[in-house]
Every structure is written in C-alpha cells, then in structure tokens.
Amino acid sequence: MGSAVTTDIDRREVVAGAAAGLAAAALPAPAGAQAGGPLPPALPVSLTVNGEARRLVLDARVTLLDALREHLHLTGTKKGCDHGHCGACTVLVNGTRINACLSLAVMHEGDAVTTVEGLGRPGDLHPMQAAFLDHDAFQCGYCTPGQICSAVAMLDEIGRGVPSHATGDLTAPMVLGAGELRERMSGNICRCGAYSNIADAVAAVAGSTP
Amino acid sequence: MRPFSYERAESPAGAAAAVASRPGARFIAGGTNLLDLMKFQIETPTHLVDIRHLPLRAIEDTPDGGLRIGALVTNTELASHPRVKRDYGVVSRAIVAGATGQLRNKATTAGNILQRNRCPYFYETNLPCNKRAPGSGCSALGGVTRSLAVIGTSPHCIAQNPGDLAVALRVLDAGVETVGPDGSRRAIPVADFHRLPGDAPEIEVPLAPGELVTAVTLPKPLGGSHHYHKVRDRASYAFALVSVAAVLQRDGTGRVAFGGVAPRPWRVEAAEALLPRGPAAVVAAAFEGATPTADNAFKIPLAARTLALVSEEGRA
Amino acid sequence: MRFETPAGPNAVDRSTVVGRPVRRIDGPRKVTGTAPYAYERHDVVADPAYGWIVGATIARGRVVRVDAAAARAAPGVLAVLTTLERDALPPGLRTTLPLFGGAQVRHYHQAVALVVAETFEAARAAAHLVAAEYEAASPRCDLAAEAAGAEPVADRDGPDYPAVDRIGDFEAAFAAAPVRLDAHYSTPDQTHAMMEPHATTAAWTDGRLTVWTSAQVIAWHRGSLAQALGLPKEDVRVESPFIGGGFGSKLLVRADALLAALGAAAVGRPVKVALQRPLIANHGTRRAGTIQRIRLGATRDGRLTAIGHQSVNGNLAGAFAEAAVAPTRLLYGAPNRDLSMRLATLDLAEGNDMRAPGEAPGLMALEIAMDELAETLGIDPVALRILNDTQVDPRKPGRRFSERHLVECLRVGADRFGWARRNPVPGAVRDGRWLVGMGMAAGFRLNLPFPSGARIRLARDGRLTVETDMTDIGTGTSTILAQTAAEMMGVPVEAVTVRLGDSDFPEAAGSGGQFGANNATSGLYAACLKLREAVAARLGFDAGAAEFAGGAVTAGTRSVPLAEAAKDGPLVGEDRITYGDLDKDYVQATFGAQFAEVAVNRFTGETRVRRMLAAIDAGRVLNPLTARSQVIGAMTMGVGAALMEALAVDKRHGFFVNHDLGGYEVPVHADIPHQEVIFLDHPDAVSSPMKAKGIGEIGLCGVAAAVANAVYNATGIRVRDYPVTLDKMLDRMPGAA
Fold it and tell me: Which PROSITE patterns match (chain A) (predicted)?
C-alpha cells in the first residue's frame, strides 16, 4: 500500500507571538506581568546541521536539543525527559550518536549534526526510516526519531568494533545478533512497546536475524 | 540552570588556572552528569571551562607495560581500544555495563569516575541532603533506600557510588593523574580517590580547587580472567543493585571489588585473599560491619551470589 | 445512526481495504520527524513565551505564602502566576482535583506557580526563585496502614462495573469446597510514562482560547478547560493532531494546559508549557496500587464453586476506586461469588485510568491465583481455565456474550507456543546458569460502546477528507479511519485524507479504554452512509442498490466515477453512531491468552523473558499491522508490570521518590524478546457495524501474571507482591554454589 495520505496539519494560520489578542475578560486580572531584567549575553556558535551551515547566537544554557527544537525549529528531535533517561533526543554529532539534551549547544562549535530530518524526507526516506514504516516499528512516534538515529549509528558502531554488554568474546569480530541488537538499542525507550518490531526493522536494514 | 560564563580552555594547566581563579568555576567535558545536575540547580557553576578540546584523548602504553588513558577518552573509545579489550577486559566490560551507547559516546574517563551519586534524595532539592546542602541532614535515612549503600556509610549519608568503570579501576589498582593550577602534577591511587562520607559527605574526591584530572593509569596487565557482572532489575540502562568486578587466576586467587553497595567501589584486600575459600567467605569478610536497611539488606546475599556466579565463570 | 440490532452483512464485510495490513498513513511524517506535537507548533504559533510550573513540595496542607518577587525580577521573566492569587479553579471532567488556585495542597507537585519568560532557560531558572511556604499536615500515603479504615465502594458506571457482586452463598460454598485457595496479592502504584510529556501551546484571540495540546479525548479537554476558566465551551478550541503516547495519562487536563492558558492571558501572548518529566509522576495521575485477597473454592476435578475477590486501594477523597475485581465478574463461571472493593484516602497523586484500568491489576492477582489452584489440583493451567469458561454473565445467566472465544485463544495459543513441552514441576528445567519456566494467563477486557461522530467530504477531484475530533495516540486510528472511508466509498486508501484531533470537527469517542477504534470507525461508517446517500442522490442512483467500488458508483449496467458526484461542488456526509441496549442484552468483551517463557538466573535471581505469545479474540481486526503493534506494546507494558515497575512512596513526605524515567524503570529493548501475536477471526455483529472491538488494552490483560507464573515454574518461588524483583526471591533461591 502507498503512504501518500497523511493527517492534514498543513493549512493553519500562524498566530503571531506579541501580536496575539487580549485575554478573555472573564479571567482574573494578571498579577505582576512586568518584565524582569535582561537576559544574559548570548554567545555565537557555528555548526553544520543536516549539511547546512548554521550560525546561532545563544544563551550559553541552551542545550543542543533546545537549539535544534526552539531555535532551528527542527522538532524531529524529541524531548522526552531532558535528563538523559530516555534517548528520544538522540542525534548524530560527527557521525556518533549522543543525547542532545545533555549537551550545551555552544560546545558544538564546528560540529556536524545530523537529525532525523537530515536522514530522509517523506517521499525520500532513508532505508532505516522505510524499514520502520514497513515493520510498523513505532506507534505514537515520539521516540521514533531517536530510535532511527540510534539504529543508524549503532550499525556503524558494530562496524567499528565497539563492544556492548551483550558481547561475548571482546576480541572477536562483532556480529549483530538478536541480543547485541537489543542491548545496543537499549538507550532508546519506547513506552508504546514497539521493541519487537523495531528489532525486525533494524535487522532488516542490517541484513541480520532479529 | 543559573546563567554562567563560558570559555574554551587552551591547555590543561591553563584550564586548571582558569577554574582555580574564579570561585564557582567548573570544568566541563562530556557534561552528561554536570548538565543534568545544573538543570536542577544541584550544581550551580558561575563559569564553565570547556576542556573538551584539550589534548587528553590518547591511550598510550606506559614504560612499565601498563596503559595511560587520557582524561577525555570517551567511554566508548576506552571500551573499544584493542589493548583494553585484550589486557583489561574488566574495564571494557564495566564500561559497557553502564549507561547507554549514546551516553558512553559522550561521557569521558575522568568525568565517569567523578560522577556524583544517584541517591533520589540528592535530587529532591527541597529536602535536606548533606551532599547537596552540607549540615542539612540526610533524608535517605528512614526513606526509600533500596538502591543505596549498605557499607561504608555514615549517619550523614548512605548514598552509593553508582559507577561501573570505577569498580573495575579499583580492582586493577589504577592511578589518577592530575595537574594543579600552578602546573604541578600528582598521581592519586584510585583506592584513595573516592572518599567515604564520614562527617563531610559533600567532599567526594580529594581534588583541590582547579585541580584537573588528566589521565587514568593502569598498571601492567594482571592476566587471569576478567569479569564484570552487574545485577539490576531491568536488563540494561540502569544502575547496579550490586556489581562485581573480578580478575581471577587459575590458582583460585584473584581480586574482587563490589559496586552499588558502598559510597565508593568496595574492595577489601583481606577479604579477597579468601577467594580460594569461596565467595561466601569473601563476602562475609568484605561486608563485615555492614549497616543495611530493611530495604537493601538483600544486597549482601546478592553480592555473595553474584560473586559465586563470577567464580563459576572463572572456572569455565 | 443508532445501532440497536446486530449488524447484518454490510459493505465492510468486503474487506478489500479494512482488515488489510495498510502501513500507517501518518508514518512518513513520524519516521522523518515532521509530525508536530503539542510543544512543537512553530507552524501555527510564532514566538511563544515559555512557561515553567513550580510544584508543591508537601503532600498535604496549605500554601501560606508564595514569594515571587525575586522570580518576577529575574532576567527575561514576563509574569509569575501563583496559586494564592486566585480561588481554586473548578476541577475538570472526570477528576476531583482543582488544578490551580487556592491554598489547599492535596498532593506533592500540585502546581503552586507558573513562571512565564522570554526563553525556556529564563523560565526554568526563575522558577527556582519562587519561594513557597507551607503549613504541612501529616500525609496519609501508606496503603497497607490506611486499608483498615477503607470504606466500601459503591458502583462506578456501566452495567459491567458493579463494585459489589454477591451471588449464591460464597462463604458456605467456599467452606465446603474440597480444594481451596486463599491468598493475598499486591500491585504497586504505576505511572504511565508516556514518552511525550504533557504539553500545551495556548493562545488567545479576541477572547477565545486555542490550545494545541496532547489530549486523548478532545471533548473532555475542551469541557474541562471551559469549566476551569469559566468560558463557554464554544470559546475553547482544542487541537491535538499528534500525541506522543497517553495510556490514560492524557485523558485528563493537567496544569500544563490550564496554566498555559492563564499564562497566555497574563502576558498577552501565546505561551507554551510542558510538564517537566520529574513533575509528572506526582503531579499527574497514577494507576493506584492495590491489595487484593482472592479465595477460590473448587471441586477435585477442577470446577470452581466459589470465587471471592476483595480489593482495596487508596485515592484522594472523592476520587474513584481501581476496579480490580472487574475482570473476575465475567471471566470464569462459579455459582457462588463475593466480589467487593474498598477505598482508603491517600494523599498521593490522583489514582485514575491507566491502560486497562481495573482489569490489568485485577488479573495480575486473579491469574496467579488460578495458577496456584491449578497446581494444587494437579490440573494443567490451560485446562483449568478451559474447564471454567462461562458463556453467560454469571449474574444473569440469560445474558450471553456477543462473541466469546477464550477457549479457542487458550487452545490455539498453547499449541503455537509449545505449551505441551512445559514441565509442570517447578524448578526442574535448567539451561546452564538459568532456570527456565513457562507461564500463562487468560486475559479479559470489556468492549465499550460510546457515541462517536465524523464528517466526510468528497471533493471535486474525487479525494475524500475525513474530519473528526478523534485522536491517534499511536494506536493507528488515522489509518483505520482512512481504511474505513476507502472501503465504504470504494476508493484506494491513498485517496483519503484524515484530519483528527480538532474540536471544530465532529465529536468522537476519543482514545481510551480501548473504545477508540471500534466507535470512531463506526461513527465514520455512519457518516459514509450519509455521503453515499448524497452521492446517490446527486447521480440519480438508489443508495440502497448502488455499489461503491473501484472509484465508481455502479448499479446494474450503469457506472459513474465517484468524483462525478462532486463536479458541481463538494458533498458532505456527517453522522454519529449511537448505541441502543445491545450492551444490556449481551456482554461485549475481548479475550486473550498470554504465554511467556522466562529464564531466571539461579545465582542472582535476575529474570529475563525469552519468548512471548498472545492469542487475541477482539472481533474484526481492522488492520493487522497496527493491531499487532497495540498488542506487542501492551505485552511490553505487562513485562514492566511483572518485573520492574513500581512507584516507590516516601511515607514520611508523601511522594513518589522515583519520579523520573531513570528511577521508574520501564522495559528497554534488552528486556523484550520477539513477540508473537495471533488474532482469531470472529467479527462481532453485536459490537457495531464495523464488527470490531477494542484492541488497545486486551493485550495487557494477563501478561504480568503469565510472566509471574513462568517465574514460579522456573524457580518454584511464588511471589504475590508485584513487581517480581530478585530481592523478593533471593532467600528462597536454590543454593548458589
């Protein structure tokens, strides 16, 4: 079956920020709406995101995750916990997967960041994205970008001889068995519980047995 | 997270001087622990010195046949290094038993052994905690303690050291090299690196202000079989209830350290000397004087059973 | 369309699109990260301000003072709203709890302030400057201690939710039974732990509120916000096209939505708020922990003569009980029964719905009890369940099940799983350092008929657009709606656009209680019949005789392309499914048989699940691909319930200590093996014109018990207090040496 149809969210008027209408008269009057002091000075950072050079000027506290989501509007990278407990924010930095929530954007000067948007687009899917679609390897979709980025990077790690907790002989060539696949993907939590299908999807791309 | 200023360090000694010269300054490298704590304002640095680009990323042989691991070597790089896999399997295994692929790609060797504890009350910022607010009291006492330490604790703190790598390093008698703000260097045995809480639980490591960890050194290989078994409720991505790091020799002797049970990696040399007499004897001696709670007393028999498993692996 | 008599043959029976493994129509967006969730609506709101919620740090008492001066003066702060500045706002629908306003604190992390700032970082930092002072009372939060004073529970809602069920003479029959089981079980508090936190972007335009939020039932959110804010519901618009999981947590409005609205009003600008993850477990709702007593009396040949099931749980005053005895009402036959519940008052986060409420924790206990009874009787656990199957409502023997194929689930499941290879002697099978065992359990969950509306429009180009405020929380609803429209109108699924989750659209059942799929597609079925009539009228066909297939309308020898009907303008069909009394005449339910093989490390007691299989009877399966996902996801959640999930209560301070995804462990990849799912093919003509039933929750029912029973079979250790963690087994594990 094709996949051309999608929930339509494309035709909406944009509500402008400061120009929004006034509050309902029925509501209690706002208390103390005066602004506080100025924000701390911002720092410049230049990085390459999905192949495109981006220059940002950011509060040093902005994480790589929030830089992507709030400043570059690349919301494919998800915030599930903001504390390194879920993996929804997994992106590739210089080809390596990390949690974008536990990284300051200003520390990524010169880095190349790849997000799920950089892997493929609707109609031009990365093989991993296509495999997730074919195997119904997701449900709500919120952990999915992280799972996909993680899976892509994980296959590369196998190739580089990075061991895992499931590795038997540390010095033997790495083979992506079912146990290895599941252990190496364990940094990406899926509460919808698509794990069995995710394993199938990743194995299909890797050409291994789930 | 409070506002902070930020700089990128140019040299190790320069970084040390930069941190030493500014109250509230901190080093940042992987950031996986520090940033988490900054979001809760458990850590409130006023200035961050980014050491990520310092030349502390090498793994090199030492003249005595050991290995010198740069402080900024990531957990993934360390676990994947051919010599580490071959000669120090307990290090590789301990690393990959911890966290996740993503976190290990970012976390550094020094940052890992400096990670702070994971006591839930340390994170519950409105409740007392002697590590977070010295002198305020310990909320864990009388609270939810299943994950916490059973030995080495004090009436002021019962948090456990959550590390895996540190347990392996303890078994190997690793060393920690540092540079001070004045450029002076020193080496600290890993056995002395993690302190027991005593009456000052907020002091976790013996580093002076601005003192920067530059490397971890491993003595020449011990041979034997290397084991790291980590017990937890779920199969991955969890801290240890109990872990056992061991290097076992064919003659029945060996070294063993326990993780998840104490404020620091728990190795008692006199206890491990009892290895030929079996795991129960080792654990009885290693945990003598333990003060578990009703919720975490299981850790002691679990330690014995896990050591039995490791011993069986060693015989296999 | 009022559905009052069982469905006859209809267009859905063709199953050219419905029932096929159609890939998710929203899948390309989800796998490319281009599906926008509530906090990500850069497409509709430019430059929102950021809100951060400050939670109470006591469980019970009063807020005496909130000092927000420092926060208000902090960099970038636009406003601080505190709870003492207004009276308690009315609670939303289906909850007892005001979300904001007033001094009273009823649970930890109740919202006491909102900080709104120019940036996320500024809001978060300023929130730490809000200083609240409290008068704290001692919280009641130890269920075991409060159970003694618990009050009997009256009925909740619906014919199959009576809280008390007494038939025959239970006491006498139990006393006289030749074989008896009497055991206590406990299930812990659980949290939904959906991956997307509760989140809302809110904006006011000319006194009307729009919230882009993460809601399972749009109308409930709309009604709740209107009620809390004192607005007519017409002035509240709710949009929720993509939802990052819910499992019941997003049935109720939480403080993110209410405070985003209040914050946006305060600063005259759109505001977005996400509940920070560490706030959710104590601020949101929970699955309430239970203590259950089960008594089973049986003849020596295994027939149940008496079933007693008592459950107690705790909740906020005025909130409802966890209906743990519900599945016991209808799962097994026995002439003498005594089922009842009691409710204690606890000052913890509100106990409310979480996936398969009632059934999930009830079956966690009942299905261990059945395993215990089977062993006592020396009867195979599958056989014992088959022996005690009932085809009627035990309370009303004249009331039959519409379709009930539990026995087939058990037989097919056992066969495919290789149950015959199970060694019934516990602790007898070893694989190296692992003790291996198999366990099984039956599953049961009601099917709930709820009204549901939809609209479908045929455009000039022949494309169909479905509009309904139905939501897709990951269940695949948008896809099965597209399939339904395609089947009914005779077009390929690619010709259908589905627009969901907007309160401007016809009101649907929403997502929850596994009532979404059947009701929402039935509402669309009704709308499609209306559109067929309009098409037939426009083209001059008799609607009853016309066939809609292959993109054309055909009767006899005349065939006209469907698009032709809209050449002078779009045609719209809109309708709503409502239900008569068929649920009073028939029990409508779904059934399952769950099988698990586990290995328990004989040294450490660590349990790892090796194989899982579910056989499910849930009426017509609308899409086997997405239905499988529902079931494997539920099985995964069941493994969590069995082996690791528990909110840990600090009984002194009255809060869940492990309130994040690090402390509250849910299964990860490494915990879950390949999972097999078998669907029986028994369309249910009593359920709806779609002949489908719910599927989102039946997959969870019985899973935890199957795993716990497998642990018993592996080790001989019976753990009756979930989760089955190693510390509860170590002292009974065989010697380690």
Answer: 2FE2S_FER_1, 2FE2S_FER_2, TAT
Give CA separation, C654 vs C61, C113, C146, C193, C282, in Å. 11, 20, 13, 20, 10
Expressed as residue numbers, the domain containing C641 is: 358-447+588-737
Candidate from A18, A115, A186 with C-beta closest to C668: A186
* Contact state of B101 with A161 under an 8 Å Cβ cutoff: no
Beta carbons of C336 and C172 less than 8 angstroms apart: yes
CATH number at residue C478: 3.30.365.10
In a domain, residue C217? The reply is no
Query: Pick from C581, C612, C645: which residue ends a domain?
Result: C581
Chain B positions touching C669 (Cβ under 8 A) are 236
Among the listed residues B165, B170, B212, B172, the one whose alpha carbon sits nearest the alpha carbon of residue B66: B172
Taking CA atoms, what residue in A is nearest to C625?
A: A136
Q: How confident is the model over A32-58, as pLDDT tens digits?
A: 444 567 888 899 999 999 999 999 999
Tokens 């450490």 belong to: C604
The answer to whether residue C397 sits within a structural domain is yes
For C65-98, b/e burial (b = at least 16 CB within 10 A) is ebebeebbbbbbbbbbbbbbbbeebebbbbbebb
In a domain, C413, yes or no: yes
Number of domains in chain C: 2
Question: What is the rounded average pLDDT for all residues in chain C?
Answer: 97
Residues 6+ apart with CB under 8 A from B294: none
**Chain C nearest-CA residue for A21:** C205
Considering only the beta carbons, identify the residue of C603, C605, C667 that sits closest to B234.
C667
Domain identity same for C607 and C730 = yes
Give yes or no for a contact between C634 and C354, defined as CB atoms under 8 angstroms apart. no
Contact predicate B286/B258, CB 8 Å: yes
Please, which pLDDT band fits residue C617 given cuts at 50, 70 and 90? very high
Instruction: Identify the CA nearest to B218 among candidates B40, B83, B309.
Output: B83
Asked if A59 reaches chain B (Cβ–Cβ under 8 Å), the answer is yes
Distance of CA C332 to the CA centre of its chain: 24
Is the model's pLDDT at C619 over the cut of 50?
A: yes
Which residue carries 């809280």 as its tokens? C163
Q: Does C241 touch chain A (CB under 8 A)?
A: yes
Q: Is residue C639 part of a domain?
A: yes
Residue C722's closest CA among C656, C660, C646, C651?
C646
Task: Enumerate the residues of chain B whose CB falls inside 8 A of the CB of residue C59.
Answer: none
Q: How far apart are the C-alpha atoms of C375 and C372, rounded to whole Å?
A: 5
In which band, very low, low, confident or very high, does the pLDDT at A29 lie, cut at 50, 70 and 90? very low
Query: Are C473 and C602 found together in one domain?
Result: no
Q: Rounded CA gap, C98 and C89, in Å?
A: 6
Residues in chain B closer than 8 A to A188 (CB atoms): 100
- Among A7, A85, A188, which would you mutate to test the C interface (most chain C Cβ atoms within 10 Å of its Cβ)? A7
C503 and C439 in a single domain? The answer is no
The Cα C440–Cα C418 span in angstroms is 12
Catalytic annotation on C408?
no
Partners of A164 on chain B (C-beta within 8 Å) are: 96, 101
Q: Which amino acid is at C83?
A: T
The pTM (predicted TM-score) of the whole model is: 0.97
Could you say which of C581, C606, C637 is where a domain stops?
C581
C721 & C635 share domain? yes
On whether both C605 and C734 belong to a single domain, the answer is yes
Q: Which two tokens stand for residue C331?
A: 């799962």
Say yes or no: ipTM exceeds 0.95.
Answer: yes
CA B77 to CA B85: how far, in whole Å? 11
Same domain (yes/no): C566, C468: yes
Q: Which has the minimum average pLDDT: A183-197, B204-218, C91-105? A: C91-105
For residues C307-330, give the mean pLDDT: 95
- CA C148 centroid distance within chain: 30
Kindly state the percentage of chain C with pLDDT values over 90: 96
Nearest by CB to B305, from C278, C608, C736: name it. Answer: C736
Low-confidence stretches of chain B (pLDDT < 70) are none
